[in-house]
UniProtKB/TrEMBL annotation:
Lineage: Bacteria, Bacillati, Bacillota, Bacilli, Bacillales
The protein's name: LysM domain-containing protein
Domain LysM: 51-104
Top-rank taxon: Bacteria
CDD domains: LysM (cd00118)
Gene3D superfamilies listed in its UniProt record: LysM domain
Length: 107
């Protein structure tokens, strides 16, 4: 009986891993909203507005963006990352260094 229960438990774990990897638990962003977001004429204006910030120990791009904007973000994390990369000449968020000045997008 113990072997049977262990077998059932293993099957349930494998099934839940399969579901999580293939479908996930977070809903995907619809493509229609991305297209709508990219066709707004004010997108270029928003991408060009920024604030220069000196990075402190423990700062991440997302934490600094939330701190600078002082409101919950209304844009996706992917958009924040892409805007950061564009404003900072191709520097990725994981490449930021303490004490350096970076341009943080305003939304």
């Amino acid at each position: 009986m113990k072997k049977f229960l262990a077998f059932v438990a293993v099957i349930i774990v494998i099934y839940s891993i399969y579901i999580d990897l293939n479908f996930g638990t977070i809903p995907a962003i619809s493509h229609a909203s991305e297209v709508k977001e990219n066709t707004k004429p004010s997108t270029a204006k928003k991408a060009s507005s920024y604030k220069e910030i000196i990075i402190k120990p423990g700062d991440t791009v997302l934490s600094v963006v939330e701190e600078v904007n002082k409101i919950p973000l209304s844009v996706s994390i992917d958009k924040v990352i892409n805007d950061f990369i564009q404003l900072n000449n191709g520097i990725k968020p994981e490449e930021i260094q303490i004490g350096q000045i970076y341009k943080i997008p305003l939304y």
